[in-house]
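Render this sequence as a predicted structure.
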Amino acid sequence: MFGIENYPGFVLVGILLNLTPGSDTIYILTRSVAQGKKAGIASVLGINTGCLVHTLLAALGLSLILRSSATLFMLVKYAGAGYLVYLGIKMLASREPIFENPNLSFERSDLLRIYRQGILTNVLNPKVALFFLSFLPQFINAKSAYGPVPFLILGGTFTTTSALWCLFLAYSASIMTTALRNNARIAKFMQKVSGTVFIGLGLQLAFKRS
């Protein structure tokens, strides 16, 4: 079908990969725990929009540039790491936490900001690009005459299963921590923990060997 081989196998492997915790999962859980359901959903949409960007890059072959240039890989890697550290420092320094509680609600601009941050967190991770570039071709016939179509189908499938799983995680995490966020002191503490987690993710990305 459209040059795709063993589509059911791809779906199964994709779901197993979705269930494996990674930096994106931690980012979504952190947002959901610290800021509630709406922030969690916005982060899920941002992360998976980033996955669609990587799908397009893989389909168009642009990710080959990233794989062939060690310098470009390192630049993108450190840009992503720096962005995560920046988010963490910003949360640690903030004196006006935004939590989902009866007295304080999100503005549309707040959710758009979280959405954009999710996109950048995913897009600026070069390992995600290399993952799409190396994983998708395993299920595509080398003699396929459909061009980028099989890449788009497989990437869209993976992103869909990822979004469903991440939405479940975001919703569950936000529900379980609602009472904690409504306590001002605990909410502030959770914000600091979230900031520390972001900084940790950034440092891990920067210093982890490729």
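Summary. The two ends are 34 Å apart (CA to CA). Residues 98-104 have pLDDT under 50 and may be disordered.
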